[in-house]
Amino acid sequence: AGAVAKKTKLYKIFKKSENVARAKKNLRDKQEELQKIITRKVNTSEDKFSIMGKYTSQMAHDIKNPLSLIKLQVDYMKLKYATAEDEIMLSSLHNIEKAIGQITTQVNDVLNFLKDSPTEFKKCDVNEMVNTSLELIKIPDDVRVEVSENHGIINCDEAKTKSVFANVLYNAVQAVGEKGEIIVGINEDEDNVIVTVQDSGAGIPEENLEKIFEPLFSTKKGGTGLGLANCKQILESQNGSISVKNNPTTFTIKLQKYSESS
After folding, report:
1. What is the pTM of this model?
2. What single-letter DSSP state applies at residue 190?
């Protein structure tokens, strides 16, 4: 039994090491892509790049902490692994993977904000996209998520619109914490499908309601302030919109209905 348990622990370490290696490669790829975009357009006067000039020092500061954590964990593993229990190794690998993930998220936010990829419209089912986006988010056991059974059909860029839903839903999960509820409504008016994401969190300070879609504005520790700004940019490029209100906190996303002529 002891030998089996040892093999199981070693397998877990092997799989976790693979996850860390993949996360590091993904981060390197994203950093290279970001550098190419910035290098190609650094001499332009586009608003996006003047914004990124302001963001550079903030990003450098924000990634310092997770990078320090990675170095600390590696040093700890070197010191302890020869005599430590395998669980310590697993825990260290988990912390490294999490730290790399934090940096990758920041780089992704910047990439998504800067990219000028064309919008590719197609017929999409809102219900399917919302549920697919939810599958990518870790939801605490005591958080209840209710999604409307309506199937609004829209004309949109599927990948970009899914990223909007994922961002707004992830923010809702963070706002709720370990216990609460999130209700996703899907309704229609004459021209649009309207998606509402309501959460039972503490709400957004009133003085921040008008700022949360502005680039670089964030109330999250380590946040880029580009997530919701990118959502707004994506939706407006598709003739849609996003807004928010309190009591309860509700994000409202409007997207054009699909029609044969669109």
Report:
1. 0.61
2. S
